[in-house]
């Protein structure tokens, strides 16, 4: 947390050019109605807030600016209510530099865009405008940004905390280049499993279903595999029947599904989304009966090679299992949630949020300390490693017990309905 009550942003408001975009002369931004310049520079951005409105030009420019499915309007329409969303646009002539969607509720501005790349200056520019336009706003909340505030000269009191972890493969070359970058153990191991699978199941086939070829039945098969995999792990499924139509609709416009079939049956599937040259793995699952063939790793590799052939420059493989995904040349990328307060008094008035973030940061620091200690080859390190193992085992036992109870209650409820 940092606070500098006097440092001006006037010398730092010249933001870099994010990208080239087509002119949007027919948009309201080109009508000459510019908001007052608050940066103290003549070459500062033109800033505008569209209250409770998402102008038509926003959909295309969101994807061009951020290349991210998680802030696209296509996804937002499916997963969130569009009521009450306002738009902030920073432009330079006919070029949009950045735009932010947000909601205002009870003195809090919550940014709808997530997993996007913003600079510290972008956040300061947005905060300046919001605090000027809305005097009653106490704080601004950003969720999971690819941004870290480093400057002690940042104008406002703020908190930031690691919110999400992504494992990202950065592509520089073609499929053969990627294969050469993989460790020989990983590459040869997967090839060995593929040869064994083909030998045992000659009907083995890898197939891609892109956009219009994605069907409800296909997505249902993916969800069914996920349920089988989670049941094998004695965990409840994180996807329900109500998510099938939503996933299918988004995949038909922004995605594809890769599958491995054996005897005509889908035994492994990977549902991915894409925006321009960024691809996002969303659901990957395989039939536990084929665990001995490492079918999940086979599908991962073939899906990555397909993504590269489709022009991918980055492949996001979701968080978790970082060591396993590192075999595929994925690197961890941490996304921060940031809260910006108008004043210290407003932070005090927002004390539940402030304290919650402080406690979360303390808990994260404790987990990192324990993880580091558990890797030390000495008596304290071995003790901590044992303690961590017992804790994980206890959590697994509780998870299995909860799953058994949940299954029993569901079966009993279904039985009551049939009487």
What is shown here, in short?
With 419 residues, this protein is of the alpha+beta class. It is built from twelve helices and twelve strands. A hairpin with a 2-residue loop joins strand 8 (255-262) and strand 9 (265-275).
How is this structure best described in words?
The chain is built from twelve helices and twelve strands. The protein is of the alpha+beta class. The protein has a twelve-stranded mixed beta sheet with strand order 1-2-3-4-5-12-6-11-10-9-8-7, with helices on both faces. Keywords: Transferase. It comes from Telluria aromaticivorans. InterPro entries: Acyl_CoA_acyltransferase, BioF2-like_GNAT_dom.
Radius of gyration: 25 Å
The percentage helix is 40-55%
Biggest sheet details: 12 strands, mixed
Low-confidence stretches: 1-43
- The number of distinct helices, counting runs of at least 4 residues, comes to 12
Which class best fits the helix and strand makeup?
Answer: alpha+beta
Straight-line N-to-C gap? 61 Å
At CATH level 2, the architecture of the largest domain is 3-Layer(aba) Sandwich
Which percent band covers the strand fraction?
A: 15-25%
Biggest sheet: strand arrangement: 1-2-3-4-5-12-6-11-10-9-8-7
By DSSP, the count of extended strands is 12
CATH class assignment of the largest domain: Alpha Beta
Global mean pLDDT = 83
Backbone shape: globular
- H-E string: EHHEEEHEEHHEHHEEEHEHEHHH
Q: What topology does this entry show?
A:
Elements lengths: L45 E5 L7 H9 L6 H7 L5 E8 L2 E11 L2 E7 L5 H14 L5 E7 L11 E14 L4 H7 L2 H17 L4 E6 L5 H17 L9 H13 E8 L2 E11 L2 E9 L8 H15 L4 E3 L5 H5 L4 E11 L2 H6 L1 H24 L4 H40 L1
Parallel strand pairs: 4-5, 10-11
Antiparallel strand pairs: 1-2, 2-3, 3-4, 5-12, 6-11, 6-12, 7-8, 8-9, 9-10
Helix pairs in contact: 2-7, 5-8, 6-7, 11-12
């Amino acid at each position: 947390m940092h606070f500098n009550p006097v440092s001006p942003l006037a010398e730092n408001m010249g933001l870099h050019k994010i990208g080239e975009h087509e002119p949007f002369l027919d948009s309201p931004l080109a009508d000459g109605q510019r908001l007052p310049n608050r940066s103290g520079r003549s070459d500062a951005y033109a800033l505008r807030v569209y209250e409770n409105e998402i102008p038509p030009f926003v959909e295309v420019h969101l994807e061009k600016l951020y290349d991210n499915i998680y802030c696209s309007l296509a996804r937002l329409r499916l997963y969130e209510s569009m009521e009450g969303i306002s738009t902030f646009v920073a432009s330079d002539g006919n070029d949009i530099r950045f735009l932010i969607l947000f909601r205002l509720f009870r003195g809090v501005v919550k940014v709808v865009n997530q997993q996007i790349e913003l600079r510290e200056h972008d956040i300061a520019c947005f905060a300046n405008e919001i605090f000027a336009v809305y005097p009653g706003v106490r704080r601004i909340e950003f969720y999971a940004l690819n941004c870290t505030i480093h400057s002690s000269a940042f104008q406002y009191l703020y908190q930031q905390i690691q919110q999400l972890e992504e494992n990202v493969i950065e592509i520089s070359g073609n499929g053969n280049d990627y294969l050469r970058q993989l460790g020989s153990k990983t590459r040869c191991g997967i090839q060995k499993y593929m040869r064994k699978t083909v030998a045992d199941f000659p009907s083995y086939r890898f197939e891609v279903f892109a956009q219009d070829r994605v069907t409800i039945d296909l997505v249902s098969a993916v969800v069914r595999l996920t349920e089988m995999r989670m049941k094998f792990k004695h965990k409840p499924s994180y996807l329900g029947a109500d998510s099938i139509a939503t996933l299918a609709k988004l995949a038909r416009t922004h995605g594809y599904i890769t599958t491995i079939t054996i005897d005509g049956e889908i035994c492994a599937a990977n549902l991915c989304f894409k925006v321009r040259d960024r691809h996002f793995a969303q659901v990957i699952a395989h039939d536990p009966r084929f665990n001995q063939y490492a079918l999940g790793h086979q599908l991962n590799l073939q899906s990555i090679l397909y993504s590269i052939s489709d022009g991918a420059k980055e492949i996001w493989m979701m968080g978790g299992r970082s060591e396993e995904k590192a075999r595929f040349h994925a690197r961890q990328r941490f996304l921060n949630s940031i809260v910006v307060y108008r004043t210290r008094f407003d932070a005090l008035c927002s004390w539940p949020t402030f304290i919650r973030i402080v406690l979360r940061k303390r808990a994260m620091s404790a987990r990192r300390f324990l993880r580091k200690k558990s890797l030390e080859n000495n008596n304290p390190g071995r003790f901590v490693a044992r303690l961590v193992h017992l804790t994980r085992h206890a959590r697994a036992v509780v998870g299995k017990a909860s799953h058994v109870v949940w299954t029993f209650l569901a079966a009993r409820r279904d039985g009551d309905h049939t009487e």
